From TrEMBL:
It comes from Xaviernesmea oryzae. It holds the Pfam family NMT1_2. Its main location: membrane. This is ABC transporter substrate-binding protein. InterPro entries: NrtA/CpmA_ABC-bd_dom (IPR044527). PANTHER family: ALIPHATIC SULFONATES-BINDING PROTEIN-RELATED, BLL4572 PROTEIN. It is found in: Endomembrane system. One of its GO terms (cellular component) is endomembrane system. Keywords: Cell inner membrane, Cell membrane, Membrane, Transport. The keyword Cell membrane applies. Gene3D superfamilies: Periplasmic binding protein-like II.
C-alpha cells in the first residue's frame, strides 16, 4: 500500500478544508489496535461533535504508511507510536518530516509473545518459577540461546512493529535485562501489528512485541505464549500519541485545541469500565479492529489468556486511557525515548539533539487546551522509575539531566548500531 491508496485501493482526496469559523473535519490515520480507542471513541460517541469537529478515520496497515501519509498531507492527524515524533525531529529514518505530539492516547497495551516451541525449551531449563515473572522468562530465554549457540543452531527471529517504536525498545530492554544482546544473540525484524500472529503461526518469526489485541490473538490460537507485559518492563512507558505537523497546529491552533478537549473527554469515557462493553463492540467492527468483542473486553479488563491451555493473568492497569495524567505529553518521557535511541545506536547524544527531542512533545498545547488538568510543570523533567509501582524491571532509574551516564550504566548496549534495516 502506498500513501496514496486507502485500504480498498481507491485514491484518497486531500483532507477537507473548512473555514476557521466553521466545523473542521480532521482526516486521521490509525492502525487497528486497542490504543486507538480514544480517537475512535471521540468520533463514534459524539465527543468531537460537541466541540464542533468531525474525525474521518482511515485504517492503515503499517506505521511507515502513517508517517508518510501525515508528511504528505494525506492525514491531518495520526495515531502514532510515541517515539515517531522524537525520531522525526531528530531527522532519523526514511522521510523524516517535522511532527509533534501535544497529547498522549494512553498507557500500556503491549506484551511480548514467544512461540509455543521456544517457550517449551525455556521450561526445560528449570529456570521458570511458579509465578509469571518477566525477568525469569528473559533469563530462561538466555539459557536457551546459549544452548543454541553451543549446538550451532540458528538464532530466533523476533518481530517488532517499527524501528522507532516503544515495542522495539521494550523488546530490547527485556532481552538485555536477561543478559541477551539484541544485536548478536537474536535477529530483529519489522512486522506490521495485524500480521504478527500469522507470522508466528507460519514460523516466519519466533516471537514479537506488539500492542493489544494481537498478543491475545496469538495465545488464543494456540501459537504463542505471553511472557512479559509492558507493565513488567516500565508501567509508565509512553505508548501512542496524537501526531500532527507543527505547521498544521499553528495554522489551525483553535481547532487543534478544541480537538484536545474532545480527546480528553473521550479518554475519560474510555477509562470508565461501565463503558467497556460499548467500546469493545465498536472496536470489534470490521472498519476498526475486526476482532471478537469478547476478546476485546478481556483486553480492556486486563485479563490475559497467556496461552490456549487456560493459563491466565490479571493486570488491572494493562491499558489505561486517562487516569494518572496518562494524556500528558511529558518531556522526560521523550528524553527517555532519546536515551534508548542512543543506547541502541540509532543516534548519538548532543545538545542539539536534546533541543530537537524537547520540541517533539508539546505540553504547552496541552496546557492551552486543558489548563489545570495538566500536572505541575516541575514534573516535566522528572526522574523516571523512582516510584515503587512504576519502576523499571532491572532497577535502573532514568535521570534526564545526565543521559550519557544513564546509557553508559547498562552492561548491554550497542557498540556500532542496529542490526536490521531502518525502514518499514
Amino acid at each position: 500500500m502506498t500513501f496514496l491508496e486507502s485500504d480498498a485501493g481507491s485514491t484518497l482526496s486531500a483532507p477537507a478544508l473548512v473555514g476557521e469559523d466553521g466545523p473542521r473535519v480532521f482526516r486521521a490515520g490509525f492502525i487497528p489496535l486497542v490504543d486507538a480507542s480514544v480517537l475512535i471513541a471521540a468520533a463514534e460517541f459524539g465527543f468531537a461533535a460537541r466541540e464542533g469537529l468531525a474525525i474521518d478515520l482511515v485504517k492503515d496497515v503499517s506505521w511507515a504508511n502513517i508517517r508518510d501519509r501525515l508528511a504528505f498531507r494525506q492525514f491531518d492527524i495520526a495515531h502514532m507510536l510515541s517515539p515517531m515524533p522524537v525520531a522525526s525531529m531528530l531527522g532519523l529514518g526514511s522521510n523524516p518530516s517535522p511532527t509533534i505530539a501535544p497529547f498522549s492516547l494512553g498507557r500500556g497495551g503491549n506484551a511480548i509473545t514467544l512461540s509455543i516451541r521456544l517457550f517449551a525449551r525455556m521450561q526445560e531449563t528449570g529456570l521458570l518459577g511458579p509465578q509469571e515473572d518477566a525477568l525469569a522468562n528473559a533469563r530462561a530465554l538466555a539459557a536457551v540461546l546459549k544452548s543454541l549457540r553451543e549446538r550451532g543452531e540458528a538464532v530466533p527471529t523476533f518481530g517488532v512493529t517499527y524501528p522507532f517504536s516503544s515495542h522495539h525498545y521494550e523488546m530490547r530492554y527485556w532481552l538485555a535485562a536477561g543478559g541477551i544482546d539484541p544485536d548478536r544473540d537474536v535477529k530483529l525484524v519489522v512486522v506490521p501489528p495485524p500480521l504478527t500472529s500469522d507470522a508466528l503461526a507460519a514460523g516466519a518469526i519466533d516471537g514479537f512485541c506488539v500492542g493489544a489485541p494481537w498478543n491475545m490473538v496469538a495465545s488464543a490460537r494456540g501459537v504463542g505464549r505471553i511472557v512479559a507485559a509492558k507493565q513488567d518492563i516500565w508501567p509508565s512507558a509512553p505508548e501512542k500519541v496524537l501526531g500532527l505537523r507543527p505547521d498544521f497546529a499553528e495554522k489551525h491552533r483553535e481547532h487543534v485545541l478544541r480537538l484536545l478537549v474532545a480527546l480528553d473527554a473521550a479518554a475519560r469515557w474510555c477509562d470508565d469500565r461501565a463503558n467497556h462493553t460499548a467500546l469493545a463492540e465498536v472496536l470489534a467492527e470490521p472498519r476498526y479492529l475486526s476482532t471478537p468483542a469478547e476478546l476485546l473486553r478481556h483486553v480492556l479488563s486486563g485479563e490475559f489468556g497467556l496461552d490456549d491451555q487456560g493459563n491466565r493473568r490479571m493486570i488491572p492497569d494493562y491499558i489505561g486511557f486517562h487516569a494518572g495524567h496518562a494524556n500528558y505529553p511529558r518531556p522526560s518521557q521523550a528524553l527517555w525515548i532519546y536515551s534508548q535511541m542512543i543506547r541502541w545506536g540509532q543516534t548519538s547524544f548532543s545538545h542539539a539533539g536534546l533541543d530537537a527531542v524537547l520540541s517533539a512533545y508539546r505540553p504547552d498545547l496541552y496546557r492551552a487546551a486543558l489548563g489545570d488538568q495538566a500536572p505541575d510543570t516541575t514534573q516535566d523533567l522528572r526522574a523516571e522509575g523512582m516510584e515503587a509501582d512504576d519502576g523499571f524491571m532491572d532497577g535502573h532509574v532514568f535521570n534526564p539531566a545526565d543521559i550519557p551516564a544513564y546509557v553508559a550504566a547498562f552492561p548491554v548496549r550497542a557498540d556500532t548500531g542496529l542490526s536490521f534495516d531502518d525502514e518499514s
